[in-house]
Amino acid sequence: MPRTALSLPLLLATLATPLAARPASLDATLAGRTAGAPRSCLPAFLGDRGSQSFPGALLYGGSSSTIYLNRLPNCTALTPDRVVVIRSYGSGPCRGDIVEVRERFTPVPVGSCALGDFIPYSKPRHRAAQ
């Protein structure tokens, strides 16, 4: 039985954040971070932190030092002004899970896409002065 995850904090944060207050581009959001080895799944607690959408991409775990990028190049319905509902078949989002894209203020689905690999992007660690 699939588990549909649309966390209330994610939905409320998405609805409460003005579009102008969001990062202008995916490149600006990833600036200063280093890409790591791709992962096929994320732990459930990272998926529950919510996601941030960009045209053709989702970011997970935006408040931590490491964020995870999932590129969805053929997902034309995914834009910053829409929300996502993830149909997950495991404990957290995984490659192959279905992302349903919906209009922001209505439950109307406008498209769906399959997740790919999750690429971690980490902030550089600062060493303490000696």
From TrEMBL:
Lineage: Bacteria, Pseudomonadati, Pseudomonadota, Alphaproteobacteria, Sphingomonadales
Protein name: Secreted protein
Signal peptide segment: 1-21
Keyword annotations of the record: Signal
